[in-house]
Amino acid sequence: MIVAALMGFASGLPLLLTLTLLQAWLTQAGVSLGEIGLFALVGIPYTIKFLWAPLMDRYAPPLLGRRRGWLFALQLLLALAILLLGQTDPHRNLTEVAVFALLVALFSAMQDTVIDAYRRESLADDEQGLGASLYVWGYRVGMLVASGGGLIMAQYAGFALTFAAMAALMLPGLVTTLLAPEPVTHRPLPPSLRVAVVGPFVEFFTQRRNAVLILLFVLLYKLGDTLATTMTTPFYLELGYSKADIGTVVKLFGFWATVLGGFAGGIGILRIGQYRALWLFGLLQALSTAGFAWLVYTGPVIGWLAVIIAFENFTGGMGTAAFIGFMANLTNREFTATQYALLTSLMGVPRTLLAASTGYMAASLGWADFFIVCALLAIPGLLLLRRFRDWLQPASDAPADATQANRE
Fold it and tell me: Less Cβ around it within 10 Å: N or C end of the chain?
């Protein structure tokens, strides 16, 4: 559980460097709202993790083992990419900024693939929900440091020094990788690359009922929440909040709400079951997204910002914990990296491909209607969840054969 939290930090740190922190940098440099929205495309690697995941299932580096060997090399490359991103200049060469931001996203997505596989293989099935909540806690700490701490530091030290500091903060992840035990698995490596590529998909689609609907649900469950989050930094700045306001209230204050939400989500899954948790947390996520529209009418009032952020982060922490636990239990330990990458790739689609249009959506609809539309986008995923009720209901309510099927 401790390793899950520490690896969550290493995973969450680079994500918002190419979202919140980079958006603030581009906004300050005078880049248009539409172009800022298009920068969401640098996150494409998060949607194609299944392309390289079979290599990580099939091959083991010569040092540190299959999971830790890959992880250590990727974390070194990621730290270097973050450092080089900070040396670019949006005023002079926006393409260069995009290239290095893409490299950060690529190495970050590859790191996530290995971390997800490590957590799945290190924890028992009934520990996945709580492990996910600890992972979310660490993930949010990393996001807090990158966005909240990064924005505050950029206010006084500039963006180049801030990105250099973020690169140095990959050191805890490297130390964790060196000290953590390699997952013990009794399954051999896939005998060939072909088996590593084809096997996970054949197993997923033949051994699960409603496999296609499961993938559609993964795509839709956090769609509205993710699209709204993509444009929140320009939203705050346009309302009149300073970078220090955003870093202090949105990131630092909101962090504690996320921590509580993550723990509440992990405990809630154990108490009410996965199905009810996904329903309740998903509904609360949608309501919190709609809450951003209220800030349009209040203006830059710190008190209202704190209330909305506390609600959004608390419900987001619960929803993410339930969602990650749901995906982990769908994977087969023989093909952990590839199957989990398939699911998280779909989860990343809204943050990249679909989010690329959010700048134009916000400019066309206005901020209030934009957030209302994002809240309504949660409905299809919640309706689809009803199709999984028979095997997601709490174990105490399920017949023995259904419980066993869910484990398998």
Answer: C
Last residue of a domain, one of 119, 151, 181: 181
Please report how the helices 150-157 and 159-168 are oriented relative to each other, as an axis angle in degrees rounded to 10: 140
3-state secondary structure of 90: coil
What domain range includes position 226?
A: 199-388
Does the model's pTM come out above 0.70? Answer: no
Give yes or no: residues 103 and 44 share one domain.
yes
Say if residue 114 is in the same domain as residue 168.
Answer: yes
CATH number of the domain bearing residue 320: 1.20.1250.20
Q: Is residue 405 part of a domain?
A: no
Summarize pLDDT for 73-127 with one digit per residue, the tens: 999 999 999 999 888 888 788 888 888 999 999 999 899 888 888 887 777 766 7
- Strand segments (E) across 331-374: none
Tokens of 314: 């608390």
Long-range contacts, 36-41 (Cβ 8 Å, 24+): 36/234, 36/359, 37/230, 37/231, 37/355, 37/356, 37/357, 37/358, 37/359, 37/360, 37/362, 38/356, 38/359, 39/98, 39/101, 40/230, 40/351, 40/352, 40/355, 40/356, 40/358, 41/352, 41/353, 41/356
Q: What residue ranges in 68-220 does DSSP mark as E strands?
A: none
Residue 294 in domain: yes
